[in-house]
């Protein structure tokens, strides 16, 4: 992710940087909630992508300054700011990827579900605007509780008659990023090589790292599996407690979200080898939504990978059965919310 822009060297005098940059692919990305804790560093990381030509930043306040600041970076994308509901439609016109980190974060002692009452309405309103203005865009939902906000988004899109399940994603990349980091630390592996699929959902025990499917293949003792699984499931809370009232993960989340955006843009650009875990409409289990590895292509999800759920360890099989009731309840809560709205 982001290799291109980080690796770019100063241009030789003989090369026109302007001309060079025009040879890059060009996609339009919007961030809704762009002035927030996640939104700002995410905007910076996306501003560094050579695949992006336009970066539209939307928030209910404080976004003008963020955009002015960011616009001085000499990378290709043009940064525009949009404030408040009256400017939301223009923010979304012609956009290829919409990222939604709008909403309130947790404080110590709260669950992600405690955010439902505020964030459900925010996501509903924003996705209605997405449906009206860029119904073909990939939609990346970050706002918690993801296990409910993604089903809400799906219902809203259905009500608007534009639902494409292949283009609606709950962002669970941070769970994979954490799993990769913690496993590499514990097993002394070269971080760049480690890849742990994480399935289920994005809250507590619904987050299920498949350590048995870690690449490169490694063996774990039962104790290590238990410790790593619990650490990955509680990593969000670990940050919430460390921040002690000042919010939840923002920097690691921005990093993870930028990776998911970059993967989506590469897929849109025709790269045939893009896989990410995400919480999506799914037929891999009896639940209507489920996080798993998906293959991304120009039209969104190109394939699910059913074999990822086969050959699980006994520990993983049990954890998978154990997470289903909670995940099912969160999904149903989201659907019920969206269906009872006028
Ligand atoms: P934050 O409070 O720092 O920022 C949220 C931003 O959303 C603010 O700038 C706010 O003005 C804006 N906002 C509020 N209502 C809005 C609306 N109607 N339209 C547009 N913007 C609006 O919070 P944060 O730390 O950036 O976290 C944002 C959300 O992301 C939270 O719900 C948090 O739980 C979630 N989160 C998810 C993951 C994940 O892995 N999916 C990880 C971290 C955080
Ligand atoms: C995370 O996993 O860090 C986010 O979902 C934020 C949170 O509330 O834990």
Automatic annotation (TrEMBL):
GO molecular-function terms, A-Z: L-malate dehydrogenase (NAD+) activity
GO CC aspect terms: mitochondrion
GO BP: any one term: malate metabolic process
EC number(s) stated in the UniProt entry for this protein: 1.1.1.37
Enzyme class: oxidoreductase
The keyword Iron-sulfur is annotated on this UniProt entry: no
Keyword NAD appears in the UniProt entry: yes
Keyword annotations from UniProtKB, A to Z: NAD, Oxidoreductase, Tricarboxylic acid cycle
Reaction equation(s) it catalyzes: (S)-malate + NAD(+) = oxaloacetate + NADH + H(+)
Span of domain Lactate/malate dehydrogenase N-terminal: 28-170
Lactate/malate dehydrogenase C-terminal domain residues: 172-337
Family: Belongs to the LDH/MDH superfamily. MDH type 1 family.
Subunit structure: Homodimer.
Name of the protein: malate dehydrogenase
Shown chain mapped onto the complete sequence: 68 to 409 of 412
